[in-house]
Amino acid sequence: MSKGKILVIDDEDIVRLSCSRTLVPEGYELKMAKNGPEGLKLLEEESFDLVLTDLKMPNMDGIEVLANIKGKWPATDVVIVTGYQTVETAVKAIKLGAFDYIEKPFTPDTLIATVSNVFKIRNK
Amino acid sequence: MRVKKSFHSLTGKLILTIGTLMVVGSLLFWFFLFKHQEKELLASSVKYGYSFVDYIRNSTRYGMLTNQDLLIQQTVEAVGVAEGVQNVQIFNCTGKIAYSSDKKMVGTVIDKNAPVCLKCHDSSGPAKVTPSWKVTKGEHYRVLSIVQPIYNEFSCSTAACHVHPKNKRMLGLVQADLSLELLDKSIMQQGIAITAYVLAFSVVISATLCIILWNLVSTPLTLLSQGMRKVASGDLDHHIEIHRRDEIGELAETFNAMNAELKKAKNELMNWGNKLERKVQEKTDAIHRAQQQLVHSEKLASLGRMAAGVAHEINSPLTGIVTFGHLLLKKFPKGSEEYEDVEVIIDQANRCSNIIKGLLGFARANTAEKSPTNINDVLGSSLNIVRNKADFFNITLVTNFDPSLARIKADAPQLQQVFLNMIVNAADACEGKGTITITTKNVKEHDHDFVEIEFKDTGYGIKDEDLEKIFEPFFTTKPVGKGTGLGLAVTHGIIQEHGGKITINTKVGEGTSFIIRLPALKETS
Ligand SMILES: Nc1ncnc2c1ncn2[C@@H]1O[C@H](COP(=O)(O)OP(=O)(O)O)[C@@H](O)[C@H]1O
Ligand SMILES: [Mg+2]
């Protein structure tokens, strides 16, 4: 029994790999998507507890992905991962319903802490 | 005061002219008076001479009538010794000296052409004798010669001797030579006295004129011309001290008034000039500043854009390095060589991340979101962040916040970044020990209100050659890993974006103070 189902949307292989190598040993079930549309397609097929999405991606950026998820699957939490954080986008993301945001580069510990924080609140 | 004293001066010319006129005038006056007097004196001498000759005639009359030659001669001799009488002679009509005060002369016949004879005779015709006088030059003094005819009177022709025929008109002449010694002496004395008088008179009048002219004309004129020279050479404060009711006083007053006007005009002109110069300088400075700011912010903006792109690209690989570093770390026992090596990898990755964060500051400086902000609050929260850091344990933080500090329109997070950088820099400069004083206050500059924030430390100070470089991106004097050299570059960008400016006072070995001025918000309370 996994601790939860997480979808990681990021155009960078290394980020996706870092997430899986950090979170899988922690007991989470992980699926990956290379971009926004691919992630949304996966979301159509199955449900996820949490989506970790990059902010800046080709085709569709993280804010758009967030808006889509919050529109169709409000029960799914979203954490924005960003390498280019500004107050503006952070405020915008939180306003649109993002649970939190993580700055790149993150350490395994911060990622685990943030994710476990999400599930702690979800499981209440 | 130096007053010109040559004859070229006005006074000199006046004195020369008046003096000459006076000397000539008085000389002429005295000359004619003198001549007149001489004539009068001579006339009275002549009158005396005639009466003297009359007297001789009368004294000898009896002798002549009685034809007593000896008596006549004795009378003539007696008269001849009188004072002032040089010679008395009685001629008969043939020109023979019949009697003379000088006995030796008796009997001498004088030439008919002698001056005495020519008086009555022209070379041929009969004598027509009238009494006459003549002045000749004697040995020492002039001599007055008086000639009187002796007419044939009735008593003569009827006298007992009957010497003279009845039809004869003239019997002879009496000539007396009288010395004019006294007259000449007195005239000479008078001449000397008059000359002396004229000279003394001229000298006194000239001196008086001189003094009067000096005081009335020369001195004030010299004062005036000196004043004009002073004014011409630019001394417009010069005031001519002539207080008189005459034309010169009026001139001086007009001059002073003109001077005052001139000064006023000059001052006005100078004020205008200064104002203009200041305005031009201000504008030039403003243009310079704007230009520099433009170049600088252009530089920062492009750096920011590049940084934003680079940050995104580099942060993902860094995430991989950090993550896998940590994964690897777990595989080695703490304290092992491998563990430490991996730690180095993670540290260096973090350093890269810090550089990226610094670079992102540029990107952020251009997207400030400003709202009315209280600087004291921003400083307070910045201090809260650093206060508990190990670097600040031995550093005294002093705050002098002005509670009435004006608010400013600012992006608070950006200013916090600025203040944090200032405080961290100050702490770095103190090398763990010292005092950081933060002061805020309201200031006024060129009629504009500003808020001033000063960060003062007791650190090592900034060298002159570094001072011009510290705002350049990547300039740092700190060891690798500690400083990125981006703090002040970003600070500069942010402060400029807020319309403020930064000034630095520093002394190597004593400390540094960074003073930030930001335009205060105009609030209607
Ligand atoms: N308070 C200070 N006292 C002395 N030197 C300073 C101070 N603040 C800044 N500097 C100098 O300016 C340089 C640039 O500062 P900064 O841009 O903040 O970069 P960094 O702090 O990373 O070196 C510093 O390396 C230091 O030499
Ligand atoms: Mg710094």
Q: Give the count of helical stretches of chain A.
A: 5
Shape of chain B: rod-shaped
The chain pair with the largest interface is: A-B, 22 and 26 residues
CATH topology of one domain in chain B: Beta-Lactamase
Structural class of chain A: alpha/beta
Main sheet of chain A? 5 strands, parallel
Give helix % range of chain A: 40-55%
Query: How far apart lie the N and C ends of chain B?
Result: 67 Å
Summarize the helix and strand pattern of chain A as letters.
Answer: EHEHEHEHEH
What ions, cofactors and ligands are bound?
A: adenosine-5'-diphosphate, magnesium ion
Unreliable parts of chain B: none
Mean pLDDT of chain A: 88
Please give the radius of gyration of chain B in angstroms.
66 Å
The name of the CATH architecture of chain A is: 3-Layer(aba) Sandwich
Give the CATH topology of chain A: Rossmann fold
Q: Order of strands in the sheet with the most strands of chain B?
A: 2-1-5-4-3
Tell me roughly what share of residues is in helical segments of chain B. 40-55%
Assigned CATH architecture of one domain in chain B: 2-Layer Sandwich
Number of domains of chain A: 1
CATH-defined superfamily of one domain in chain B? PAS domain
Shape of chain A: globular
